[in-house]
Amino acid sequence: MLGIAAALRFWALDRPGTLVFDELYYVRDAISQLSHGFPTIWPDSEPDMSGDRATAFTADPTNAVHPPLGKWLIGLGVLLFGPESGWGWRSASAFAGVATVGIVMRLGWLLSRSMLVACLAGLLLAIDGVNVVLSRVGLLDGFLAMFIALGALFVWQDQLALAQRFRDAAVDPKRPLPVVWARPWLVAAGLAFGAAAAVKWSGLYPLAAFLIFVTIRDLLLRLRSRTPRPWSRAVGQAGVAALLTLPLTALTYLASWIGWILAPGGWGRTPGEHWFPALVRYHRDMLEWHSTLSAPHPYQAHPLTWPLALRPTAMYEHRWADGCPWTECVSAVSPLPNPLVTWGGVFALGVLLWFAVRSVRVRRASAVLTTARHAVPPRLGPAPAPALAIPLGTVSGFVLIGYLSGWLPWVATVSRSAVFQFYAVVLTPFAALALALVLGVACRIGALSRAADELGFRAPAAAELQGRRIAAALFVACALALALFFFPAWSGQPIADWFWRAHLWLPGWA
């Protein structure tokens, strides 16, 4: 899966040979930031980076409206391959895209305990059109998606460790479950989400959502264990979680500004003034800029349209006829979705919501049944299939929170016109996980088979199960074929105009 991801992200990475879309800002900021410690002004806005133009920045600071970490990461690729080539501008983004696939595979295995489901989640993300394109351009959002997925992985590792610790501590029901301080995975999550916020402030949304998830789950574990003082202990545990994560998140964010702090010539600096009040003032100006941006854009897309990718952000298009073997040639870079992956992921998220609701109802019914009986008869027959480490309802809720935390805040707070479809790249890891989990449940793969039984789903007959698995295999094969079909439009490959128009399935894709 990582090989497929790398092939789709690194092949012909230097095409197009000029800056595309907002690379004009982020790449040039990254190059000047390497030299000065902070972004500086360039003499023009031409996308050509050939020859001396690749280092034509001035020494005058510019007002960069996003934190520095994403530009430092772009700069790593520039250091390796130089500023004159797309390999320099885009290699770090491509590596982040491949790393995100690896993170999702690991998370998929921990959620499902199935290597097949883990590989399926990685494959679906590897061929997701939005993720592929945002891994092939020198923008910030691919790094943001990687750090958010990494933070989610660490949160789930923490939940697995905490669940095991509570199971061990619940042997004596008269003793309350302890408030746990040793939570290294939660510390790691604070670092990861701090890095996400240091790429774009929207990385704070998933941090808040997952901290709420951790708090609620901790309370539910204590209530179900029937140990003393569950509410007060849960409040104490929530305070511990905040103390373990939030200071490290803030320190990680602050560390990304080290170049601006150490170099006194950055934007907003006044000679003789301490850096801290200047940084506070800079952030106030950044917040004002983001909250008042109202310039219309031809590719603006309301967040409600993001899940179905109704208005992709065309980042590059060049047409020519001379020397073209067809009537007209086109080279384009547009994050058109892989329809089966994107639309299938939205459907799968709806199914996960159903799983989460059904699990609550089943658990309540089970509690009533257990209370009514004095003893549960031993299970007869063959040993049951292995169980998930954490119930499927909780797994479903976790994936839903990851997806919604990157989407709903935009739906609720967007007040400017210049928001774009490609911001939805942070949703793609969770959509891939949702689709892989739903296919795993439908095909009764590994521990997901027992999870389906626990939710009260009817076990399919052998012929029906074989049919489901054949259908799932055909679905994945068609998704792979669509990835090959759309890849020329994702990668700027020269194609005939008629072939380009064959990719524009919806009016908003033009």
Automatic annotation (TrEMBL):
InterPro entries linked: ArnT-like_N, PMT-like, PMT_4TMC
Top-level taxon of the source organism: Bacteria
Limits of the ArnT-like N-terminal domain: 85-248
Membrane topology recorded in Swiss-Prot or TrEMBL: Multi-pass membrane protein
Cited PANTHER family: DOLICHYL-PHOSPHATE-MANNOSE--PROTEIN MANNOSYLTRANSFERASE, PROTEIN O-MANNOSYL-TRANSFERASE 2
Pathway: Protein modification; protein glycosylation
Name of the protein: Polyprenol-phosphate-mannose--protein mannosyltransferase
Location in the cell: Cell membrane; Endomembrane system
tRNA processing among keywords: no
Membership in a protein family: Belongs to the glycosyltransferase 39 family.
Annotated ranges, domain Protein O-mannosyl-transferase C-terminal four TM: 278-509
EC number: 2.4.1.-
Known function: Protein O-mannosyltransferase that catalyzes the transfer of a single mannose residue from a polyprenol phospho-mannosyl lipidic donor to the hydroxyl group of selected serine and threonine residues in acceptor proteins.
Keywords assigned by UniProt, alphabetized: Cell membrane, Glycosyltransferase, Membrane, Transferase, Transmembrane, Transmembrane helix
Transmembrane segments: 115-133, 139-156, 177-197, 203-220, 240-263, 340-357, 388-410, 422-449, 470-490
